[in-house]
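Blinded run. Sample ID left blank on purpose so nobody reads anything into the name before looking at the predicted structure. Input follows.
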Amino acid sequence: MFQNAIVRKPSNQYAKGITTSDLGAPDIKLALEQHKRYVSALEKCGVKVTVLDGNNRFPDSTFVEDQAVIVQDLAVITRPGNLSRRGETTLIAPVLEEFFKKIEHISAP
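Blinded prediction complete.
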């Protein structure tokens, strides 16, 4: 079981994120409430949660799980396929450095 979690609040630009579904625009107020409940559920399970502010420049950065793969004591920072998401990794790297001594990066082929 894990002891720590890193999450990022949805930003005001959340509705401009990448999607392949035709479900309409997300409701930012609802997304923020759901995120708050998610953090609360993690905390009730005894997880220490690091909550990062939303970032309007990267609407999809809420999905921090896309930005790194964690294996034991190693964090591997990914290289997102979509150009609009590439800057997200520079946001998460300093946060991961607080938790991991070993950090690797996936680079372009």
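Unblinding after everyone has recorded impressions. The domain at 4-105 is CATH 3.75.10.10 (L-arginine/glycine Amidinotransferase; Chain A).
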